[in-house]
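Re: the pair you flagged

First of the two:
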Amino acid sequence: MKGSCTKPALFAMVLVVTMAAMASGQGTRVGFYSKTCRQAESIVKSTVESHFRTNPAVAPGLLRMHFHDCFVNGCDGSVLIDGPNTERKAVQNSLLRGFEVIDDAKGKLEAACPGVVSCADILALAARDSVVLTKGINWKVPTGRKDGRVSLQSDASSLPGFTSSIESQKQQFARFGLDTKDLVALVGGHTIGTAACLVFNYRLNNFTNGGPDPTIHPSFLPQLRALCPPNGNNLRRVDLDTGSASKFDTSFFTNLKNGRGVLESDQKLWTDPSTRSIIQQFLGEKGLKRLDFNKEFARSMVKMGNIDVKTGSNGEIRRVCSAIN
């Protein structure tokens, strides 16, 4: 019909409007640097692409880093600050990777637009670009964050842990206005990347009654034990999404369904009915309303990216991301 709007087009329009609404009232907006540093997003994108070509592991690293930043005192780039007793030194952040990408992008931005683009925004943009590089969805990232001045190692204790129950994870996400669907979508970011043996090898032996975690499928257990044997290298990296760790897709959820989740907290998404139903919707299981994982992930990333952002005089623009001005 002339003048009508197709369902995909209508959804896309609603998604853009919804994301804009989420960003408003927080001081961030899409295109914040359009007049002050027009090349800001392209510089970040090209920098991430350059590092990705030589080291694809930076993509999941940057995505995790953005999450860890936002969940500790808001999305203010404080996880980037280096020094004694900073967030970066916390055990929860000890395995984060990709700091060199942010530093590289910041150096190029300072050369092009001195003192304009925040480290917090660079990280948010780099996380989006990382998803795109791994064949995931592209979305518009609201910008305009200022950088925080405080980074304390002890504050990182608020991050969700790899043994956290679903109830605990829900409570931690709810503190930031994120619901259960956001929780499942954002944890779905584990479709790319790896985890060190030390964060899950306790599941393989002596977990309950001297045996392994019963939620691990028996056919998957020997594979994990071979990768992470007793007295082996605890820092060895293992794919979080077996068979598809370099592609942003729904196979991570299929693995959870089949008892092939690597992290205990991930596998619990399937064993808990309240989160399992959302996974089933992402997988398009018969009889349930289908949810598009990529679109829900993008929506949740925008919501997360506006957690306690600092704008105006509440923050600063750090000239070096690893140091306070």
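Second of the two:
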Amino acid sequence: MTEDNHSLTTEFILIGFTNHPELKTLLFQVFFTIYLITMVGNLGLVALIVTEHRLHTPMYIFLGNLTLMDSCCSCAITPKILENLFSKDRMISLYECMAQFYCLCLAETTDCFLLAAMAYDRYVAICKPLQYHTMMSKKLCIQMTTGAYIAGNIHPMIHVGLLFRLTFCKSHQINHFLCDVLPLYRHSCVDPYINELMIFIFAGSVLVFTITTVIISYLFILFTIFKMKSKEGKGKALSTCASHFLSVSIFYGSLLFMYVRPNSVNDEDKDIPVAIFYTLVIPLLNPFIYSLRNKEVINAMKKIMKNL
């Protein structure tokens, strides 16, 4: 393969938040606070679910794995942001880029399938409560969780593997705070059409399947809630479902807009605002959305606090 009189790029500079040096101290404080709250919230919820036997149910097993993946996503992204805010070179090698994208794609893909599993679990619990223990057996729960991790690993393997067909000989500056594949495609001196097509096919398939599962599950849940005679029970169920559905909508909406929208590779102006939602905001909010309105989690926390 010829280099076309360009030197091949093997290192990149992430310039996402470094265009405003006067704000670097403030940005460092904001992102460090987000990172700290995210890790404490998510890992704290994982520890609570592991130690409290009453939370060893399918819903909390899915939730524990979801918060674990959110922690992995935050660990893959935020430390590099903090480093780059005060680093002079802000360099990241191509292989570090691939590793960061792999961790990000692993976390996001696994989250998609776990959210779908959680929606199905809620559908069974609310719409078919008498059949819950039969339909949501321990075996099925393990299979769904394992399947989510398998899909979460296969998906990034495909895209990272396809990166090896590209060479990079354009500008080594990436206008982003993370190493995503879309900015890398813009720096390729080889036509990334196949890579773009695979992103559209595989990311689109994952999102369509899991979003369809979530929407159908919540539609059945809503129909069941509206049939409830108790206004108090109906209000509590709607409040809980609304907060969950808001989180899911932001997560899926940002991923759809990022990877499946037309001309997503060439439209870089929207990359950073959209990526902030699914890499920083959602991992920060999830442990609070899924626990603060949950009496079982709150009671488990109170029990632990009393025993300290």
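The CA atoms of residues 207 and 262 lie 15 Å apart.

-B.
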